[in-house]
Structures are given as structure tokens and as C-alpha cells.
Amino acid sequence: MRPSEDPGGPPEARGAAEAIAAEVRGVAPGEVPGRLCRLAVRLLPVADAGASLHGDGVPVPLCAGGDRASYLAEIQATLGDGPCVSAAEAGAVVLARDLTAGADAGRWPVFAQQATAVGVRAVYALPLGSGAVCLGTLDLYRDTPGGLTGPQLRTARLVAGVMTRALMELPHGGDAWLDELAGGHDEVYRAVGMIMAQLGVGADEALARLRADAFAHGRSAYAVARDVLAHRRRFDPDR
Question: Which interval of the chain is the signal sequence (predicted)?
Fold first, then answer.
């Protein structure tokens, strides 16, 4: 694995590229995302980092450097809302500089409340790919409000680019962990089909009901989906 961008430019940019190259040299593609999440915390002014795959509007957590990144990935998957969802939909970088006030707090109000409750004040989400082909997002979490400088954003883009390349280089069928993630995504949509039949509603409404139920009970959308598939949870029209 090598960084897919030219590391030219100022010394700090070259230093970041060299650190990324050293981190992924000789590493199997399936190990790269987790390594790069941890490296991002060392290279950038962020407290945690994670990555999610995106398909049909449902983010699937891929890896996380720490507990907060893992928790906030699950929250965004359950809500279907947040910076990583917006970045994946637009295929563009989303920089939420202050989740405590202003436009960023109002753009994703429930996510912002959940994030600030665990001490996260800013989030930077970078697409893994582009608007045409976006595999997911790299999500960076910061304890204090603020943005990224030009060189810092370049470093974040470089990390995302190498992560994208690693995912593209996975053999057909993926690693076992990637197959497991895809299985979780499929479980959600199989459960949505059952909820559609139970309530007589469309797919969007059924997915919204599943997400609302998960959030109301402090669970992930995947956990509720498994309960629906196992007939431990039923959605009744009068509830």
C-alpha cells in the first residue's frame, strides 16, 4: 500500500505522507482502515477517529479508534443523520466546527446533543471516494470547537484516500469482517421488509420506525433489526 496522492508541498505534508506510508507498508488491505484511524489521531488535532461504509442510506460502522467514535457511528446509523451521513450523500467533505451552537448544532440537532454529551465538540467527515462512487466516510472527532487548517485538511484527505484505495483492493467477497458488516446491513433491510408488512407502509416509513424504536430504547438499529427477524419485536399499527 502507498498513499495515492502526491506528497509534495510543505514539509508537514510530506511528513504526513511518510507517516501514512510507513503505517500501511506491507499491511493487508483489510487491516489498513483500523491502522489509519489510530494514525489520524496522532497526525491531526482530533481525539478519536472512525470509518463507516454506506449503502442505501444506512451507515455500517467499519472501524473505530476508540469508544466515542464507535458510539457516535452507531448513533448516526440509528438516526440516519449526522455529519458522516451528509458527507456520504454529498460525496464531499463536511466540517462541523462547533456542535454546541450555530448552524452545525441546528443541522443535526439530535446527533449534536448526543455528541456533545460525550464531550465531542467538532466533527470532520471525509468521503471514501467521490460523489459518483462513495464507499463510506472517514470521521474525525474533536474535543474542542474549531476547524482544520489547510495542511491538516490535506493530511485528512490523504488518510481518506489511502483508506479508500485499501477498500478497493480487497479481494472479491472481502475479508470475513467485511462480509459480517454486509450481513448486518442486510439484516436491517430484511427487518424493514417485515415492518412494511406489519404496518402496511413503505420502505422509508418502515426504516424510520425501526430507527425511532432503536433510539427511543437506547439501542442500535442493527440490534432492533435482529429482534424483528427473530420475532422478538413486532411493530403493530396501533402503536
Answer: none
Between CA 10 and CA 223 the distance in angstroms is 47
3-state SS class at 51: strand
Copy the grid coordinates of residue 198: 406489519
Phi, psi of 92 (to 5 degrees): -140, 160
How many residues are present in the chain? 239
Distances (CA, A) of 109 to 104, 114, 202, 226: 8, 9, 26, 28
Judge residue 106's burial from the number of C-beta atoms within 10 Å of its C-beta, 0-12 exposed, 13-18 middle, 19 or more buried.
exposed
How far is it, in rounded angstroms, from Cα 39 to Cα 16?
10
Predicted confidence (pLDDT) per residue in 46-104, tens digit: 999 999 888 666 778 888 889 999 999 989 988 889 999 999 888 999 999 999 999 99
Task: List CB contacts of 129: < 8 A, sequence separation 6 or more.
Answer: 91, 135, 136, 164
| 22 φ, ψ (degrees, to nearest 5) | -65, -35
Cβ atoms < 10 Å from Cβ of 218: 8
Q: What is the DSSP letter of 208?
A: H
Q: Nine-digit cell at 83?
A: 455529519
